[in-house]
Amino acid sequence: MQTNIDEGRLKQVFKEALIETLEERKGVFHDLIVEAIEDIALSRAIREGENTETVSQKDIFNILEGRA
Description:
Layout: H1 7-24, H2 26-49, H3 57-64
């Protein structure tokens, strides 16, 4: 048995289902977006750091501990 579905109606149903899913799972999508942004920022920081002078671990810990 084959069912004919109007393409416009199919698109509308799909849009409604997608919107409903996004509304019900806001937290999941929020977490995914935040993680993606953090990954982008980290990769940019790594690239930037590749072109800077290296420092010792001791210097880093001194800065973190407020002894700079």
